[in-house]
Write a structure and sequence with these properties.
The chain has helices at 69-72, 77-96, 108-112, 116-127, 136-146, 183-188, 216-222, 229-242, 266-276, 283-286, 293-313, 318-338, 351-363, and strands spanning 31-36, 40-49, 52-62, 101-106, 132-133, 157-163, 168-174, 205-212, 259-264, 290-292, 343-347. With 371 residues, it is α/β, with parallel strands linked by helices. It has two domains: 31-136, 2-Layer Sandwich (Nucleotidyltransferase, domain 5); 138-351, Nucleotidyltransferase, domain 5 (2-Layer Sandwich). A hairpin with a 3-residue loop joins strand 1 and strand 2 (40-49).
């Protein structure tokens, strides 16, 4: 399946906007965001607070919805059953918290599966939840706005990378014309779409974006037949880079001043936790951390030295993630090899946070001001 991108760099023909709320939200009303991906089901329930939000409840579980999808092009009976069991828990949390405003989305696995519509109908029938299968552009858009608080005031060129289970989204943004103090907020205003409407406010310009149908699960499945651990890692990394050919900035090898790359995914946060030597994961130490290319390479080399058994017993990786961490690391290594920076900003945030920001921004319940 070919990477998806618009026709022509920056020529975004379709404006993806969230519908405004039919009635003004009540003060203190809760919002929910659910992200059903190829590998995981995650949900946040939050209350607007200032120019951000306070998390009231959350849920995260590995459901492996896309297991076997690469081979059969269908969601398996077992994968659907596991996922619906997790969604029932989400439904109970939504009901208990009396959440009325929510956005529940599914991504790459449901975009690709031939029986996705049958699955969506079954979810609604058995849980009452209505899942929306979003397009790659909206997934990329939501990942970008989730990272707005991490954008530096000195950043003039920004690359946001979201490594998912079934796909990887990359968005290149030009901020040179935006005043330094307004750069994070200009990213937040992309909640209404990559193609900005005419406005007196300074605008972040999306130079190009791409959705590569290779994530930690789909890339690993393509190289299941390679037995050697190091060889499989090298092949995955180079294969991912080959799929970046349609991304316009990939061909721009000139170094950029004031360039920032922000990575958001379980892969990136796991590598960061390993770099810090954390015995127990601590989001406050990981989110916003800066890692150099050399530090990332050292962590990846340590993963290869551990081998599958060692990675499985490493508390920062664990049994569930050990099979996928090397495909994610292969993607991360390829990205750091391609672009003119030796530093990565780590984001422990993603689609759920983007969904919350988008809903709250559309409803006008977030305050203005710097993050």
């Amino acid at each position: 399946m070919a990477p998806q991108r618009p026709k022509g760099a920056g020529a975004l023909e379709q404006k993806t906007a969230l519908s405004p709320a039919p009635v003004p939200p009540r003060s203190g009303e809760l919002y929910a965001a659910l992200d059903l991906g190829t590998n995981s089901c995650r949900m946040l329930i939050a209350q607007p607070k200032g120019n951000g939000f306070h998390v009231v409840d959350s849920f995260s579980k590995s459901v492996q919805l896309g297991a076997g999808l690469e081979r059969t092009q269908r969601l398996s009976r077992g994968s659907m059953t596991r996922t619906i069991q997790a969604l029932r828990i989400c439904q109970q949390k939504l009901r208990r918290n009396k959440v009325r405003r929510m956005r529940l989305v599914a991504t790459e696995a449901c975009r690709r599966a031939l029986n996705a519509n049958e699955f969506i109908r079954r979810v609604h029938r058995e849980t009452g939840l209505k899942l929306d299968i979003i397009k790659p552009q909206e997934e990329a858009q939501l990942a970008v706005i989730s990272c707005a608080p991490l954008v530096g005031r000195s950043t003039e060129n920004l690359l946001v990378v979201d490594i998912g289970g079934g796909s990887t989204e990359l968005v290149w943004i030009d901020l040179k014309d935006v005043p330094a103090h307004d750069r994070p907020q200009s990213i937040m205003r992309l909640h209404s779409g990559f193609k900005q409407l005419q406005s007196d406010l300074p605008a972040a310009r999306v130079v190009d974006w791409i959705s590569v149908p290779l994530g930690v699960a789909t890339l690993r499945e393509q190289f299941n037949d390679v037995e050697d651990d190091a060889a499989r890692f090298a092949l995955m990394s180079w294969f991912f880079e080959e799929n970046l050919g349609d991304f316009a900035p990939y061909h721009d090898t000139q170094p950029h001043e004031k360039f920032q790359i922000v990575g958001t995914s379980g892969t990136v946060t796991t590598v960061a936790a390993s770099h810090l030597g954390l015995k127990r994961y601590d989001r406050t130490k990981v989110d916003g951390l800066h890692m150099t290319s050399d530090e990332i390479d050292r962590v990846i080399r340590s993963y290869l030295a551990l081998g599958p058994a060692g990675r499985r017993s490493d508390p920062r990786i664990g049994h569930d993630r050990q099979a996928l961490i090397m495909s994610g690391a292969a993607i991360l290594q390829a990205l750091m090899r391609c672009w003119p920076t030796d530093r990565l900003s780590v984001a422990d945030r993603g689609l759920r946070e983007g969904l919350l920001y988008a809903q709250m921004s559309a409803d006008g319940v977030l305050e203005d001001g710097e993050f």
